[in-house]
């Protein structure tokens, strides 16, 4: 952490006791702001994790529902390919 110091010109003008008090005040506010930021960051990260888990569950359920559609279309593709090959073979083979 960076040390906060009062510039020499201001230190000479307000005195050593006041400049030490000013340094302490700024250091205390810096700690307060840092703690507040870290607490808020932890809350946001927690909320983000909850949202990601919810989206993961939604995605898994969507993928499960699409599995049946994929099987249906795959079967349709296989049957049509088989019919196309049989048609081509019956045309090429002698009768």
Percent helix range: over 70%
Largest sheet: none
Give the domain tally: 1
Arithmetic mean of pLDDT = 89
What would you report as the Rg, rounded to the nearest angstrom?
A: 36 Å
For the termini, the CA-CA separation is 91 Å
Assembly type of the shown chains?
single chain
Choose one word for the global shape: rod-shaped
The count of strands amounts to: 0
Task: Give the helix/strand class.
Answer: mainly alpha
Strand fraction equals: under 5%
Order of helices and strands: HH
Poorly predicted parts: none
Number of helices: 2
List keywords for this structure.
mainly alpha, 95 residues
Care to give the gist of this entry?
By secondary structure, this protein is an all-alpha fold. Helices cover 88% and strands 0% of the residues.
Characterization of the model:
The chain has helices spanning 8-14, 16-92. It has 95 residues and is mainly α. The chain has one domain (8-92). The longest helix has 77 residues, at 16-92. It is rod-shaped and about 115 Å long. The termini are far apart. The mean pLDDT is 89.
Show the helix and strand layout:
Blueprint (H helix, E strand, L loop, with lengths): L7 H7 L1 H77 L3
